[in-house]
Amino acid sequence: MSDITQSPATQAMATLAHQISYRGGHQPMTAAVLLDHLAPAVLQTLAGRCHHVTTAACRDVILGLPPVRTGETRREYALRLRAAAQHATAVDGSTKDLRRRYLLDVIRAQGGRWTTAYPGVAQRGTLRRDLEHLVTEGHLTTEGPADGRYYLLAQTDRW
């Protein structure tokens, strides 16, 4: 078993390759076949993931799809798709990294004070850990007492 966890995009691409080749592998591959199988593969693979991970994975799957070649069968395309999934570099890092990058992007865009009371971004404990991680990385600073702590974008923000 590998020590490396596949990214959500890599998992979705592998599921898509399986669905495309499962039945009718000898049939011609078309863009319509690809589109017919894309949504179910993404939904199956990313069910239960948070919005920002799902959005990033969908983008990376679409950007990572190899173009359909003229005369190519479904099975041939699925083989190339599996190879692309194994070598996918569109998403580097774990779900944690993606979530933290998304959070930092949101903080940069919206500015202001941030606390762990932002529903829909992540669970409170997860958000607290992510904010603290961004502090240790030098992206944010903390202000206020422990029971009223808030986070601000650091003046020397980098990433």
Helical amount among residues, as a percent range? 40-55%
Q: Please tell me what the overall shape is.
A: elongated
Tally of strands: 2
Query: Kindly, what is the distance between the CA atoms of the first and last residues, rounded to a whole number of angstroms?
Result: 32 Å
Strand-residue proportion: 5-15%
Largest sheet: 2 strands, antiparallel
Q: How many whole angstroms does the radius of gyration measure?
A: 20 Å
Mean pLDDT: 76
SSE order in H/E notation?
HHHHHHEE
Q: Helices and strands: which structural class?
A: mainly alpha
Which residues form runs of ≥5 with pLDDT under 50?
none
List the total number of helices.
6
Strand order of the largest sheet: 1-2
